[in-house]
Amino acid sequence: MSVSVAPPEREDAAGAQPKVATPPPPSDDRRWRQVDVRIRRLGGRPDALIEVLHTVQEVFGYLDDDALTYVSEALGVPPSRVVGVATFYSHFLMKPQGLHTCVVCTGTACYINGARGILQKLRDTLGIDAGGTTPDGRVSLLSARCLGACSMAPAVVVDGDVHGKMTTAEMDHILETL
């Protein structure tokens, strides 16, 4: 009795890995090419989910429903798992952010050193809660459980720059420059 076994997938003559089939992108936006390149480099495997989500967010600024569906189909991961991962990690943003981003640390050291007052001042001044964006799209306000800058408590990150030992007066000054 003879058993036929399919040969394992091999690299082609040029040494390239087999191509990963991805579904058509949600739009003809050229940025999807960057996402596809990343998916191919990672082999289109389900364990690349977090890295691919990071890439989509880097390219588009946030993760919308179309992006989550595309990633699900491209990696062969159930949509519920993709949404679960995207909503579990606070780094992933599910809606567009403002031109400027302000993140207030609410970790223990920052909280006991005045982060609550800074966050309240920002809410009052901007007219939005944490997780929101001003109606004009100028500023997004976020909070984080810990920024890892406890010695600088209370800490705030504005457009990627960490500001330590913040006060409400200093926060007003920073807002004026935005």
Please tell me about this protein's structure:
The chain is α+β, with helices and mostly antiparallel strands. It folds into two domains: 31-88, Arc Repressor Mutant, subunit A (Orthogonal Bundle), CATH 1.10.10; 100-177, Glutaredoxin, CATH 3.40.30.10. Helices cover 41% and strands 11% of the residues. It has six helices and five strands; from the N terminus they run ααααβαββββα. The protein has helices at residues 31-41, 49-60, 65-75, 79-88, 108-126, 168-177, and strands at residues 100-105, 132-133, 139-144, 156-158, 161-163. It has a five-stranded mixed beta sheet, with helices on one face. α1 (31-41) packs antiparallel against α2 (49-60) and α2 packs antiparallel against α3 (65-75). The longest helix has 19 residues, at 108-126.
